[in-house]
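SEQUENCE-TO-STRUCTURE ENTRY
===========================

Backbone structure tokens: a row of integers, each naming the local backbone shape at its residue.

Task: work out the structure tokens from the sequence, keeping to the layout shown below.
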Amino acid sequence: HAIDEETLPKIKELLSSYSFDYTVHSPFSDINISSLNKSIRKESIRQVKYCIFAVNEIGGKVMTFHPGRHSAATSKAKENTKGILFDSLKEISDYNKDYGITIALENMPDTFITTMKVSKEVLEVLENKELSEIKHTMDVGHLETNNVDIGEYIHDLRKYLIHIHLHDNFGEFDNHLPLGEGNINFPKIFRALKDINYAGRIILEMTKTEDIIKSRKFLEDKKYFL
């Protein structure tokens, strides 16, 4: 959950043995670019910026990052978060102009402090002309916890969607289960992706290697690969 001056050389050395295309998820543990605390927000932005630098160093193409979250400390947090998030995104987007990495903001699961959970919230950010360089990573499992019609969501976000995180759950928790072991309607998702001629990346986002292998087989058996 950290890419910094200490870990980057080790990552570069490891990746030099392979010839893959790389996408990177920016650190998110303890990171909050929407924080009301200026010092925490400043450090969070610095770490996202460093991740952009690191992605460029390893020859990566896409970096996914989180929009941060509301502070639980004040009832006015949600009112303030939008403006703070915009300022943070503008700073990150401007920094990325020197690198040209595709940066993609991810939708969040349903908790009382998360933001950017449904299409209206996501579009409010991505349709801002000053943030036109920012694209979208759609996390299917996060959408399921928000009881969202994922097919409609895909059509709503089709102009910005360049990256997808796939995993499964039962709609209550963000479990990151293997595909087919929860309630998510994958046939509907892949029909919608076909409708919009989706040509971006699809990432199997599980924590165990065996779950990734199981999920890949699920996709192959269902002939869901585009």
The chain has a mean pLDDT of 93. Residues 1-89+100-106 form a domain with the TIM Barrel fold (CATH 3.20.20.150).
